[in-house]
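<derive_structure_tokens>
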Amino acid sequence: DVKRAEKEELLKKYPDKYEDRLSHRAMDRSFYRSKSEVDIADALLLSGIPYIYELPVKLDGHIYRFDFRCLSLIDYTTEVIIEQQGMMDDTNYQDKFLNTLTTCLRNGITPNVDIFFTFDDMFGHADTRQIKYIIDNILLPPRDKILLA
């Protein structure tokens, strides 16, 4: 609830000028910009991973809206960002990705530690293997260490 309040405050300060592009619906009936983001949102929901979608963050004087800020269920304090990259066959999108990656590195956001980039498969959907890896190995505690009562 604290993060949701933070998001509401940040959205007042930095409104989403592309909110009308949220046209794809997930299982919980919330809207996302792409089918790939819906795939990720649904996987997070089914796994019980709490997340906030596109929480604005200011880096190097610019506002970034990383797709998913997730809470690790391993320690309930670590936040992990998942940023979906689609349309990588478009050179403008490739440039945007490289700029985002550079900004992350400059600001101490480490790929495959703090931020995980996922990519579309050859059919234009989020690569579910990548999502499953992040959920199973980064966000959820190891199954063999969970004690059942």
